[in-house]
Amino acid sequence: MRYIATVVLALVSPLVFSQEQAPQEPATKLEAFQATTGTVVVRGYTTAGTVRGLGGVITVDAREFRDASNLGKRVTGISISVKETSRLERENTSFIDAEEIESLLQGLEYIGKATKEVTSFENFEAEYRTKGDFRVTAFNDNSGQLNIAVSSGRIGKSTAYLKAPQLQELKAFVEAARAKL
Q1: Nearest to 47 by CA among 74, 78, 89, 12
Q2: pLDDT digits (tens, 9 = 90+) for 17-30
Q3: Bridge partners (DSSP) listed for residue 146
């Protein structure tokens, strides 16, 4: 019996480890450009604004990445960082390509207007997610209040919570970052 378990483990282990260790493909053009090797990558950024929520800080930046050897090769977009202000102080950054920003703004608009009436059930969640794993989730609590969770990251994501009016502030910073591109 011990021999069979060892053989099965030996056959399965390479598959398990190769899946766990395989690097994830870049989800956005900004991520792919940032991962470029063998050339000088110039990263330009301007902070559009910061929102302080419960348990964290959210920062929105306009971004431009250029290949120093080929100045015509560049990508633009925004990044949104979520830094938890708890004991761990985790921070993750999500990249959003320029062509995805309009969809993000529409998602933020919908989420900001979400109410319990979006479903016939007692509780609801409405979530918008970008390719780069930035998430905004609206949900109601037991008292019916609208709450907003903002998170970034694939593994060990960072989350901050906003009041409904702060979502409009975040949306304004995304619009300001887009205007800088």
Answers
A1: 78
A2: 444 555 678 999 99
A3: 140
